[in-house]
Design brief:
globular, Immunoglobulin-like, 15 strands, mainly beta, 1 helix, six-stranded mixed β-sheet
Length: 217
Amino acid sequence: MHNVRVILRARSSVVLLALALTLTGCGDAPRKDVAKPIVTLPTGNVNVPAGVTLTRAGANLRFGEPAQVAYEPNPQRNTVLQLTVVSATKGSIADLNTYVLDDQTKASTPYYVRVRVKNVGDGDVGQTPIPLWAVSQDNTLIQASSFTNSFTQCPSTPLPTTFAPNAVLSTCLVYLVPNHGTMRGVSFRPLQAFEPIVWTGALTTPKQATKKNKKKS
């Protein structure tokens, strides 16, 4: 696996925006997946409460459809999350014009993904990352970027300090697809050996402000 981290500075104050790209393989081109579809995803030490059914590995969902997954960010904490990718909007790199961008980041395309997370298990996973990745047109997995200030186009609120059973969070995730790339879906994939759960749907674009027609003299 290969990770790339980019630090951006705002013009008025120092602001960090972390961009981590996790590729399916190291080298010039992503490695093609060779794992065969597996019916169930691993649960590890996660207790699945009675009445909760996990979504099968390899499921293809549409935006707005929930998936229930075993989530174990570390050996000490785990639970079952209900994840819903609500919608996705294609942005413009000009949206980040208050940040000092390097050439690589300037060549990326931002996508704003609205998600809903509910804890339907019996553990507390507060202050852990939301386990969703953007999938680019070349099957590169892209981690959500993080901000130390409020990014108005897509307010990215992380899981709070406490995210106990029945807790719910609606938030927005920012994904920067490199090389003017295209996002083709959003993925949950706990391990490389397992087929991912993938959400797809229509991408929206922000409405452009229309100019008022000038009055004829």
